[in-house]
């Protein structure tokens, strides 16, 4: 029976973590015993809550008060339950199990429904990935629609708008952006040299006009494996132009 109880706790935990976005994010990044204990923790919480509810039901003697209205008795109900379950499982344990499953499913379902809102989804993901700066800056860029600058190990540099950050399903192994500028880093001082301006092309094609569907602009997106990214930062075109115009650095005393 001990194995059955452990499996039951793990199933409750799995139901919740598969629906709750922050829990799913953490689960995908844990391994081995850490993964088991993460699932077991949530399952144990729901079992405790279900046990407390059953204790309250017993304390107020709810079955004895309610069953006469259903034309049955507690003894008859126990016999019926025993016909469908092992004698080793008491009606109280069965009720705790059903309540725990219900609590895990309802709590996870409500959380999943709430995170259908893109703003709430991004906010919860950002809180969950506080320990990963790379994912954090991409999520911040997606929320604020700021341009980001990506420098690759080939010194190629792309500047653009982040379109998707799939962090809850697995480790972030690639990033999708719509490029607005591109260039390279100089060999000697790694200064950014811009060569192409995609933004003007989008304007000429009318892809930036109000009411234009984003799907058309998404046709220009590029997917970059994160293992080839050596530098990420936000990019401000006005700041870049200002710094280019003031190349001379005054000598210090």
Automatic annotation (TrEMBL):
The chain crosses the membrane at residues 6-23, 35-57, 94-113. The keyword Transmembrane applies. Keywords: Membrane, Transmembrane, Transmembrane helix. The keyword Membrane applies. This is Uncharacterized protein.
């Amino acid at each position: 029976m001990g194995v059955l109880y452990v499996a039951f706790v793990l199933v409750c935990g799995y139901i919740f973590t598969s629906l709750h976005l922050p829990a799913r994010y953490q689960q995908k990044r844990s391994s081995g015993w850490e993964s088991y204990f993460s699932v077991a923790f949530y399952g144990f919480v729901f079992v405790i809550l279900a046990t407390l509810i059953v204790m309250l039901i017993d304390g107020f003697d709810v079955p004895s008060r309610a069953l006469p209205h259903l034309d049955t008795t507690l003894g008859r109900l126990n016999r019926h339950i025993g016909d469908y379950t092992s004698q080793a499982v008491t009606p109280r344990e069965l009720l705790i199990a059903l309540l725990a499953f219900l609590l895990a499913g309802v709590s996870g379902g409500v959380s999943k429904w709430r995170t259908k809102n893109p703003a709430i989804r991004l906010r919860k993901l950002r809180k969950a990935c506080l320990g990963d700066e790379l994912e954090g800056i991409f999520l911040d860029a997606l929320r604020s629609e700021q341009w980001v600058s990506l420098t690759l190990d080939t010194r190629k540099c792309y500047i653009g708008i982040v379109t998707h950050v799939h962090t809850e399903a697995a480790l972030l192994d690639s990033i999708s952006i719509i490029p607005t500028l591109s260039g390279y880093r100089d060999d000697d001082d790694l200064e950014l040299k811009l060569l192409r301006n995609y933004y003007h092309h989008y304007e000429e094609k009318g892809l930036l006009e109000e009411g234009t569907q984003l799907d058309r602009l998404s046709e220009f997106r590029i997917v970059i494996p994160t293992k080839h990214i050596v530098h990420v930062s936000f990019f401000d075109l006005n700041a870049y132009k200002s710094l280019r115009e003031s190349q001379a650095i005054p000598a210090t005393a």
